Amino acid sequence: MDPRRLGYFLAIAAHGRMAKAAEVLGVSQPTLSQQIRALEQELHTVLFDRTPNGMQLTATGVALREHAQRLMVQTEAARTAIAELEGGMSGTLRVGVIHTYSTAFLPTIISRFSEQCPNVRLSVEANNARSIEQRILSGHLDLGIAFDPPQHPELGADRLFEERLVLVLAKSQNRPPQQSISLVALARRPLALLTTAFATRRILDDSARPRYKARCPCRDGFGRGVDRTGKIRGLPTVLADRSLNARKDLAMIPIGPPWIRRSGALVWDAHRYQTAAARAFMAIARSTTRSL
User: Fold this and answer.
1) Which pTM value belongs to this model?
2) 210 preceded by cis ω (within 30°)?
3) Whole-angstrom Cα distance, residue 128 to residue 197?
4) What is the pLDDT of residue 87?
5) Over the range 175-201, which residues count as b (16 or more CB within 10 Å of their CB) and which as e?
6) 278 burial class (0-12, 13-18, 19+ CB within 10 angstroms)?
7) Coil, helix or strand for 292?
8) 104 by DSSP, 3-state: which?
9) Distance linking the first and last C-alpha atoms of the chain
């Protein structure tokens, strides 16, 4: 298949209209239409339903989009590999980090990476683990710091550290220290929890099933126990201990035994070439997290 035609196909799939895609690509609409018809003839299928509301992908169009995106990513990776051999380390490295890690150790990694790779522009976005994995596979991110094991088998992973899930609540002089809390006791407490879009919640639910499933999920995706400013308020919540170790105002009670753990990890597309900048970032992330 002609890579140019695949690029045209992806543009129409992204914008939903032939006219808009032609404008973005800088080609005429008849030329774009002709190229898509040629691609459909080559594949002996219909890729789009032409509707009054625009161009809608057919089932075969959806299947092609996934493979076309991967091919375009690999093509760009090949160009990057060649450029590295000719001109050294440069360009942009796009990294996704889960929210709780974005303040725990990421600033140190960014500082060390900037010193070691001054000609590389580092673009970092915070997101949940599921979205980071999807954006890596779609080619929008080069690397992620999320969890091991990843949900998608196409992703490689390198475990950086382990952390325990803990019950988090405000410290109180009137409350005696507590060494741990069992799942049975946890299930009896009203809690404010992350939604199931977050890996922390899914790990907790998997550990608590079937008898002791925790209650009181929050609709906005954040535990009301710890708000967006990091202040404790309202109901207690469940988070990982590593991201809260510096908080002296919070009491953290491990859940168990058996302890509920999650593993922080570097994740990447196992089928994609990793640039020198990506390899440098990974090495810095390993040394930084393991020394903390």
Assistant:
1) 0.65
2) yes
3) 7
4) 55
5) eeeeeebebeebeeeebbbbeeebbbb
6) buried
7) coil
8) coil
9) 49
